[in-house]
């Protein structure tokens, strides 16, 4: 069966991003951005999702990491949407709850073609290292919008913002991994196809 390998690029005055997604390969992720904490959580997301993800990204982080984080979400969303459009039916729904020490992260996904986001995370510390955690919602918005994903993401509780963010991204990875499993036979929609 053909492997679902997608390459996406986005080049603007603010960011330059090249992404390779292989939903059928468990190879170790290769994440290279100039934002160390972002690398860390993206690596956790792909590793626990069971898919290969390579990201090479640069941008105007001298301003702040906002554009890089948001645009990475856009490009990953584009790749996930293309996976459905080019390779056919998927399971569609994914759900995961992940504990990380004091924190509990939960993500539910419907890869329906209808973008919608509910995001709840009350981070007690505003930063993880030098990374502003308010940008995580921007990533989720971009991913949901461009991927055509309904995403409900929440960190139910936690004392350490690093743990909360990591639990959330591990849950995102596992939920994506479930939602994008190939489905044989009929499409996973009463409409006859997704993204219609």
Structure description:
The protein has 196 residues and is of the alpha+beta class. The protein has helices at 36-49, 66-87, 135-147, 161-179, and strands spanning 5-11, 15-22, 30-32, 52-59, 93-100, 103-110, 116-120, 127-128, 131-132, 150-157. A hairpin with a 3-residue loop joins strand 1 and strand 2 (15-22).
- How is the largest sheet built, in terms of strand order? 1-2-4-3
List low-pLDDT spans: none
Radius of gyration: 16 Å
Average of pLDDT: 94
Number of strands: 10
Q: How does the major sheet shape up?
A: 4 strands, mixed
- Give the percentage of residues in beta strands: 25-35%
Blueprint of the fold:
Layout: E1 5-11, E2 15-22, E3 30-32, H1 36-49, E4 52-59, H2 66-87, E5 93-100, E6 103-110, E7 116-120, E8 127-128, E9 131-132, H3 135-147, E10 150-157, H4 161-179
Parallel strand pairs: 3-4, 7-10
Antiparallel strand pairs: 1-2, 2-4, 5-6, 6-10, 8-9
Helix pairs in contact: 1-4, 2-3
Provide the descriptors you would attach to this structure in a database record.
196 residues, alpha+beta, four-stranded mixed sheet, 4 helices
Summarize the structure.
The chain is an alpha+beta fold and 196 residues long. It has helices at residues 36-49, 66-87, 135-147, 161-179; strands at residues 5-11, 15-22, 30-32, 52-59, 93-100, 103-110, 116-120, 127-128, 131-132, 150-157.
